[in-house]
Amino acid sequence: MKEEEGEKSKIQQDLQILTKRLAHINDSLARKIDTRNEFDKVIQETEAAYLKILESSQTLLTVLKRESVNIQKKRQASS
Fold this sequence. Notes:
The chain has 79 residues and is an all-alpha fold. The chain has one helix at residues 2-78.
Protein backbone atom coordinates (compact mmCIF):
# COMPACT_ATOMS: atom_id res chain seq x y z
CA MET A 1 0.00 0.00 0.00
CA LYS A 2 2.83 2.41 0.84
CA GLU A 3 4.43 1.64 -2.51
CA GLU A 4 1.19 2.48 -4.34
CA GLU A 5 0.87 5.73 -2.41
CA GLY A 6 4.43 6.64 -3.44
CA GLU A 7 3.67 5.79 -7.06
CA LYS A 8 0.47 7.85 -6.85
CA SER A 9 2.41 10.83 -5.47
CA LYS A 10 5.02 10.51 -8.22
CA ILE A 11 2.34 10.34 -10.90
CA GLN A 12 0.61 13.41 -9.44
CA GLN A 13 3.89 15.34 -9.53
CA ASP A 14 4.51 14.23 -13.10
CA LEU A 15 0.97 15.26 -14.00
CA GLN A 16 1.48 18.74 -12.52
CA ILE A 17 4.71 19.17 -14.47
CA LEU A 18 3.12 17.95 -17.68
CA THR A 19 0.06 20.16 -17.14
CA LYS A 20 2.30 23.22 -16.74
CA ARG A 21 4.26 22.27 -19.87
CA LEU A 22 1.02 21.75 -21.79
CA ALA A 23 -0.28 25.17 -20.71
CA HIS A 24 3.02 26.78 -21.77
CA ILE A 25 2.93 25.04 -25.15
CA ASN A 26 -0.72 26.01 -25.67
CA ASP A 27 0.10 29.66 -24.94
CA SER A 28 3.04 29.55 -27.32
CA LEU A 29 0.92 27.96 -30.05
CA ALA A 30 -1.84 30.52 -29.56
CA ARG A 31 0.66 33.38 -29.99
CA LYS A 32 2.15 31.76 -33.08
CA ILE A 33 -1.31 31.16 -34.58
CA ASP A 34 -2.22 34.82 -33.96
CA THR A 35 1.01 35.90 -35.64
CA ARG A 36 0.38 33.61 -38.60
CA ASN A 37 -3.16 34.95 -38.95
CA GLU A 38 -1.80 38.49 -38.99
CA PHE A 39 0.74 37.53 -41.66
CA ASP A 40 -2.02 35.89 -43.71
CA LYS A 41 -4.10 39.07 -43.45
CA VAL A 42 -1.17 41.27 -44.54
CA ILE A 43 -0.42 38.90 -47.43
CA GLN A 44 -4.04 39.01 -48.60
CA GLU A 45 -4.10 42.81 -48.41
CA THR A 46 -0.80 43.00 -50.30
CA GLU A 47 -2.07 40.64 -53.00
CA ALA A 48 -5.24 42.71 -53.38
CA ALA A 49 -3.20 45.92 -53.68
CA TYR A 50 -0.89 44.28 -56.20
CA LEU A 51 -3.85 43.16 -58.32
CA LYS A 52 -5.24 46.72 -58.29
CA ILE A 53 -1.85 48.07 -59.38
CA LEU A 54 -1.64 45.44 -62.12
CA GLU A 55 -5.14 46.25 -63.32
CA SER A 56 -4.38 49.98 -63.33
CA SER A 57 -1.12 49.48 -65.22
CA GLN A 58 -2.91 47.36 -67.84
CA THR A 59 -5.57 50.07 -68.24
CA LEU A 60 -2.86 52.71 -68.56
CA LEU A 61 -1.04 50.64 -71.17
CA THR A 62 -4.25 50.24 -73.18
CA VAL A 63 -4.88 53.99 -73.06
CA LEU A 64 -1.29 54.75 -74.08
CA LYS A 65 -1.48 52.35 -77.03
CA ARG A 66 -4.77 53.87 -78.18
CA GLU A 67 -3.40 57.41 -77.88
CA SER A 68 -0.25 56.39 -79.73
CA VAL A 69 -2.36 55.09 -82.60
CA ASN A 70 -4.42 58.31 -82.59
CA ILE A 71 -1.26 60.45 -82.70
CA GLN A 72 0.12 58.40 -85.59
CA LYS A 73 -3.16 58.76 -87.49
CA LYS A 74 -3.12 62.54 -86.94
CA ARG A 75 0.48 62.73 -88.19
CA GLN A 76 -0.38 60.71 -91.28
CA ALA A 77 -3.46 62.83 -91.93
CA SER A 78 -1.49 66.08 -91.71
CA SER A 79 1.29 64.82 -94.00
